[in-house]
């Protein structure tokens, strides 16, 4: 098995409406892959196919070395899936939820308790472990939900918008938890609507648009692809005086500075700005490679 996830020529339609229109992707083992896309792009459909909940119309989809249709049970035993909505028992404590799910998944009582304690610690829930879940905040619930999905260690983890609606602190705790899982060798495939999340977490970012992957790479590679570095000139009060798009070459920069020299004050400061992930995303999903500054 070379890759944790391999998808080739994947198609899926619902009632004549094509949602996935020839998706190809690979996710190396032990890496974090973030799938970005505008609403309705097909992210959840792709995630559901990878996690065996939806059947593809055409194409080859292998997860942890198994084919998702003919070896569905093997795939299921190799993955865990955390969705957008938590499925925890409100009346039980966080610890009880974890131990119960561990027992239901076949762990011995002692192992379930040890594993629960480790996960409570990792997701910063030790203090709240003995409190009923109905007293938890949204962020605590989401962390508990992720902990529950990890009670049995699986090589491939699917996270559907893991931090949607969470405050900055909870988001950072979750990010640290996810990074730690990748360090331990898990492969993580997540969907997100937060570009910063993709930027922070992912080894590979893929942008899905109209049912196809229109760009793949690291955050830096995607930024380079969009080619919207800018020369910014600011005065002594830090007010923007001028902003010009550049390809970053010496020739281009010299041309721009020569041109501006005669028109701006000599004490104006110059900096080169890379595009933000927001600009990259807008550019890639609008089909327009040049983002206007
Ligand atoms: N079971 C289904 N039956 C019919 N249409 C569906 C079904 N599941 C998804 N769709 C349609 O497929 C398209 C893609 O939906 P999907 O949920 O995969 O997008 P998404 O990228 O996850 O969007 P969002 O960011 O809004 O969650 C939408 O037009 C949706 O209405």
What does this structure look like?
InterPro entries: AAA+_ATPase, ABC_transporter-like_ATP-bd, ABC_transporter-like_CS, ABC_transporter_ATP-binding, P-loop_NTPase. Keywords: ATP-binding, Nucleotide-binding, Transport. This is ATP-binding cassette domain-containing protein. There is one protein chain. This protein is α/β, with parallel strands linked by helices. The chain folds into two domains: 216 residues, 3-Layer(aba) Sandwich (Rossmann fold); 46 residues, no CATH class. Strand 7, helix 6 and strand 8 form a beta-alpha-beta unit. The protein has a six-stranded mixed sheet, with helices on both faces. Strands 2-1-4-5 form a four-stranded antiparallel sheet, covered by helices on one side. It has a three-stranded antiparallel sheet with strand order 12-11-13, with helices on one face. The C terminus is likely disordered. The protein is built from ten helices and 13 strands. The protein binds adenosine-5'-triphosphate. Adenosine-5'-triphosphate binds next to helix 1.
